[in-house]
## 1
Amino acid sequence: MQKIIRGFYNLPSTADGRLGGCVATIGNFDGIHLGHQAVLNQLAMKGDALSLPVVVITFEPQPNEFFSPDNAPARLSRFREKVEALRCYAIQQLCVLRFNRKLAQMTAHDFIQQLLITGLNVRYLVVGDDFKFGKDRQGNFDLLQQAGKEHGFQVVNMHTFSIENRRVSSTRIRQALETGDLMLAEKLLGRPYRMSGRVAHGDKRGRTMGFPTANIHLHRRKVPLSGVYAIRLFGIDGEPYQGVANVGLRPTVGADRALLEVHLFDFKRDIYGEHVQVHFLRKLREEQKFESLDALITQIDLDSKQARLFFAEPAVE
């Protein structure tokens, strides 16, 4: 990805800076699952055919987080994780619109004019046929197609991407994570579900218990999964490393925000400050509260043995 455009005020709307045209798509792209990937590949092929750059338009925060922050579903990916995933595709620009009251009150016609026509000079646009935009969600697919005919750009709908006769969606992946079905989540994502963050100093309690952990603050209002998992960790020399991880509030010791704690097998290096990615491979159990630290230590030992057995299983062809 060559450039991130943040906000309408950074759009290249001057005569000298205006894009000579682009192909674009609009959406939340939460998780960058196989359905999203199909759209990005479709867009890249069209960009090649027209010799135009590919632009992805997304929102921060996501619209449902702005309108109903307490009821919005847990994100599959934070903004940084989304950017990291998008770098794997032939995208020249990511346009990030801050979803605030001003954007929520913008009319559908102004959205089309300021963003798609004046700002990005879109020549080809891919959106879902249920896409709504503008004040009171007055804009829709039909309005975009009408604007495209008037201003000379093509509007097409995203092809439905299905697995096991059901549409691949971020909602379906959240449901799989909530029920501990990591194999289904991986199938829908095209890769294991992962979370990333920087290793931070914690209370060092794990070290005194014989199970030192890398503590990763998740910086999320909600997390899409919780419990204890067999994981692989990437992002440091010698990757990947196998281990066991807990996601949640650590009820035995008490915590007021979700934390990802990773215990790596046969690992003694100092990795404070490193930005790492944790791939969740199998759910071992739900998070639970123990009567004592000794009981917790016994369970962590059992979790580690169970995770080692998982990694010792032969790979499925």
## 2
Amino acid sequence: TYYLQDATIKVQEPPVRNSGFVGGLFLSRRKATGELLDPFDETFLYVGAQIKVLKHRFLILGTNDSTLKYMEGNDHQFTRSSFYSIIQKLQGYSTITEAIENGSLEAAFDGVSTDGLVNMEGIQSVFDSYGLIDNLNKDMISEHECLTLVRKAGSKGSVAIETIISEIKNPSNHFV
């Protein structure tokens, strides 16, 4: 749990039955630093991020809806939650622009879609097939960014393939 008001962090491990681990408090609420002894701030935390606390590496698997809404509402600060920053990043990859031109991107999405709709895992799979997924490199596409595409342009966990491709071709600013 990250607390914006005072930039503190608390880490709790959920109990898992029959695992040998009882769970509980790993780190009490305090200011914590990252690997380079830089203090954590909220921009270090996103779905797919790896953070190191007290020599232990943690992978952020998800977050709640209100946190995602906050990040999307402050997308100037949380660029992984900015729909058009992600679209602009995708436009910068020659593999994606070429795949749009020759129709192979649509075909790749068709392989992971249902009735022309694709979920976050499908988007991630297609971008990974083009070598674009990397949660640690901000110049690549992260798991959080795939989630943002679905949340901003879709509904009920999926988005129309046509919408994603048309926004990459010609951004409409409809999803600001």
## 3
Amino acid sequence: FFSSRRRHTRLQGDWSSDVCSSDLTTIMQVGFIGLGTMGASFASNLQSKGGHQIIVHDISQQAAKMHLDAGATWAETPKALGAQCDVVLTSLPGPPEVRTVATDEHTGLLAGMKPGSVFFDLSTNSPTVVREIHAKFAEKGVHMLDAPVSGGPKGAKSGRCAIWVGGDKDVFEANRGPLDTMGDAVRYIGPIGAGSIAKLVHNSAGYAIQCAIGEIFSAGVKAGVDPLSLFEAIRMGARGRTRTFDSLADHYLINDYDPPDFALKLAHKDVSLAAEMARDAGVPARIIELTRAEMTEALNRDWGHRDSRSFMLLQQERAGILIDVDKEKVEAALKAD
């Protein structure tokens, strides 16, 4: 496979590595498809920060104007783009668009990409679809990896975003250069589909948290607290001062709920009081009530003396798994940031 960390030189139509000559041109040809809100910034960073020669394609050629003005080359189809590139990146709305761009038998990337070339899909995609596409590309000797991005439009523009990669680790390491140009937290997650799984867990958890906050925040406002004052209060509380997912390291990941930092019976009391407050204010609180029900089930297991997060074991039981990570490895992951 081609490496973004090595020098590749085109000589009489063939590729040879690490050839040094003033008469030869060092090339790293990168293709980019999907120049929407996120993709446009990614492609611009590849040009301005990475200094990559890029070939671009989008459903609308007008979307590529600023990239073409900056020296990019236009490709009429994904197939035409793939035929010219060592590494191809796509940033598309979802699974249907990725499948079409990647595998359409007449115009898709697979019809054009050379064996040994690499395809990173930056889209938020289905792990099932990613694995299907990966298998089809593997039949032709083309490497496909899923590499979804978290950071939003601002992160895409600034380069402050996470990119989670699933696929062959050696291929990732050898061709990660364009990804490092686009994001400041590029990380290999695991086999094909792992990046997409991480992205879906992250996004859905975030929206669920927003849903819960929206629910109980509305109850707090209706119960009599000014919205700004309530915001200022909760953002300085223990949860507000902690990175959203860091608390998983305390008890959940290491499967150690004894002794507790805060007992489940006390947490159950707090959630019950919040549910009662919402009821008294005439505000439905479905998520808070569901949380109380989960905690009540854990209390009925005689877990009231255990850490407040012990009720999360119930879902592991339903899923048929047990999460039990070595404490030193968890601590190392926290220090890695």
## 4
Amino acid sequence: MSQPSPDPATRLVGLAALQDWTVDLLADRDDRRAADIARRSIEAAIVDNGPGTEMLAQAWLQLGVATNRLADRRTALHAFAQVSAVVDDATVSALVELDSQASWNLAVLLDNGNSPQEALQAYGRVITRTSDSSNLAMQRRVAKALKNSAIVLRDDLNQPAHAGGAWNEIVTRFDGHPDAELSRLVAEAKQNAPRPARRGLF
């Protein structure tokens, strides 16, 4: 395999080509080759708080998707976690989206009843990183992360009060939203949210 160019501009062009190739391979379900190309991108990465950092985060995300499809859960978990490590607390919208998507994938993989605290932490990062976005897809992701957090808290951690808080948060954030998917999640949250206590006699 040829060595990456020492010139940053030339290397970025090559990294962009590798990324496009990986996208095509994933679309074709050629996951083994997609994982190999994503690894090449990671090895040749440039961390520049710009396009290089974005491509590195994207390569880790692509590696996670490919290896998850290949049933290599350990590598997929590591890859999705690395996206957040690369992005850190960056506020650039493209990096936030990659972080949110990878954190969601990480949470879903962890949410199998065996790692409830870790799953809850990953869902929490989705919520924290995505809450301020007006993008509809990201708002849906927040609502779903809140829903799944409520279920983990209720079923796996036996914390019904905290679960109720997560259900109520869905209602508070999204009640009245015109999107059908968010409306469905609000209706589900209202069914599961704790009922107000009845007033006693004065």
